[in-house]
Amino acid sequence: MARILYFASFRERMGRTEEALTLPPDVATVGELVAFLRERDGAGAQAFAHPATVRAAVNQEFAAPGSPVQDADEIAFFPPVTGG
Amino acid sequence: MARILYFASFRERMGRTEEALTLPPDVATVGELVAFLRERDGAGAQAFAHPATVRAAVNQEFAAPGSPVQDADEIAFFPPVTGG
Amino acid sequence: MPSVRVQAESFDPGAEMAALLAGRTDVGGVGCFVGVVRDSAGGQPIRSMTLEHYPGMTERALAAIAAEAEARWALQGCTVVHRYGRLLPGEPIVLVLTASPHRQAALDATAFLIDWLKTRAPFWKQEESADGGAHWVEARDSDDAAAARWEAGTA
Amino acid sequence: MPSVRVQAESFDPGAEMAALLAGRTDVGGVGCFVGVVRDSAGGQPIRSMTLEHYPGMTERALAAIAAEAEARWALQGCTVVHRYGRLLPGEPIVLVLTASPHRQAALDATAFLIDWLKTRAPFWKQEESADGGAHWVEARDSDDAAAARWEAGTA
């Protein structure tokens, strides 16, 4: 099971802070996980509607769409950061 | 009478912090005053030996060798500044 | 070693600077930047600013950014403190402090740290407007440009 | 209006920053630089540093430098405090503080102020070495170069 975290607008649109998910067999990258979540339900469709504003981290390191993901990973989705 | 002030190494080499001086008739600029002081005595010869390290102010504004001077001015000599 | 903290509580820039300098006499200059919550954004008044972060990753990101600054400049120490939670206008959000034998290194490292923080530290700001509505602050291209200066090596 | 002071006493950067921000909620960033007496120079230990200044002209020069910074950047305030007299290693010499709605203006104005201070404010440093000998610090070309950046408009 992967642990999926949502922050900021992604948390609001997904209606949760995190979920445990068994990665489907055809999900091996961040980009494929995004596609899966977008197709899964209306919340995912809304949260992941604009790929340009999706940012991700795998195991607390920033990740790209091609970054690999696997069960047991901590995977986070959030918009571009605005701290400082 | 002009008031002449000396700071830092100029104060030490001239052996005084200031003096009152009636400007000689042929002294109308900072550069001419430097030449006069350099010729006047051994202390002046030493203090003004290296023109590249002489800095001046007239009435508390930085001045160039060609800047005019007259009696009643406050004229200061010092090395390049090193604050901050 | 950099000192990096993520906290809800406020901080005292003077006390942080004193701690950075404590017991040492080899520091020549300290650079500092403090980010503060403004009472308006885009001409509209702001009632509060709430910062969300990613516990765990945020601390790691700040430590990595500080380590990068210490690798690039001859720093004798640096301190980064970033707050989260609900903050009111006038309250400090972020502190960057750098100590170096030479002023240029302290100044450059301070600018670097705040630029990189803005694009690489997982924080998200939500503004509460005067009518109580809330909206997420959007990332600005100018922040990416400021951070990119340090990558291109032009700064 | 900039706040400019020349004094023998030490100063408290945190208190100065609090004074700059007091009662206002429109500041977005505060830039700060503190120069400190180092315990060595050119590899030789230093026992103390004595700063001489030109009373009257020094205050005027600092006010002119601060006014120049306020003319160049959208500052909401700036503070310059410079000490004179005999200082020991670890003691602060100079404080520059700038407040602005935007961080880049605060950072740039801080760098500008310290660079110009070093080349345009009438202060002279004398170092006392470990054997009690004293010598005047010579002006550095790198300081002139740093100040010249702001004239050429390249910074």
CATH class of chain A: Alpha Beta
CATH H-level homologous superfamily name of chain A: Beta-grasp domain
Q: How many discrete structural domains of chain A?
A: 1
Q: Helicity range of the residues of chain A?
A: 25-40%
Q: Could you tell me the radius of gyration of chain C in angstroms?
A: 16 Å
Q: What is the H-and-E element order of chain C? A: EHEEEHEEEHEEH
Helix fraction of chain C?
25-40%
What is the C-alpha radius of gyration of chain A, as a whole number of Å? 12 Å
Low-pLDDT parts of chain A are none
Q: In CATH terms, what is the fold-level topology of chain C?
A: Aldehyde Oxidoreductase, domain 3
What fraction of the residues of chain A are assigned to beta strands by DSSP? Answer: 25-35%
Mean pLDDT of chain A: 97
General description of the model:
- The complex is a heterotetramer, with two copies of chain A (84 residues) and two copies of chain C (155 residues).
- Chain A is built from three helices and five strands; from the N terminus they run βαβααβββ.
- Chain A is α+β, with helices and mostly antiparallel strands and 84 residues long.
- Chain A has one domain (2-78): Roll (Ubiquitin-like (UB roll)).
- A five-stranded mixed sheet of chain A has the order 2-1-5-3-4.
- In chain A, strand 3 and strand 4 form a beta hairpin.
- Chain A is globular and about 35 Å long.
- The relative contact order of chain A is 0.28.
- Chain C has 155 residues and is α+β, with helices and mostly antiparallel strands.
- Chain C has four helices and nine strands.
- Chain C has helices at residues 13-21, 57-72, 103-120, 141-152, and strands spanning 3-7, 29-36, 40-41, 44-53, 77-83, 85-87, 92-100, 123-129, 134-136.
- In chain C, a hairpin with a 4-residue loop joins strand 8 (123-129) and strand 9.
- In chain C, helix 2 (57-72) runs antiparallel to helix 3 (103-120) and helix 3 (103-120) crosses helix 4 (141-152).
- The longest helix of chain C has 18 residues, at 103-120.
- Chain C is globular and about 50 Å long.
- The two termini of chain C are 24 Å apart.
- The model of chain C has no long low-confidence stretch (mean pLDDT 94).
- Chains in contact: A-C, B-D, C-D.
- The C-D interface holds C 12-15, 17-18, 21, 24-40, 88-90, 101, 103-104, 106-107, 110-111, 114, 146 and D 12-15, 17-18, 21, 24-40, 88-90, 101, 103-104, 106-107, 110-111, 114, 146.
- Strand 2 of chain C pairs antiparallel with strand 2 of chain D.
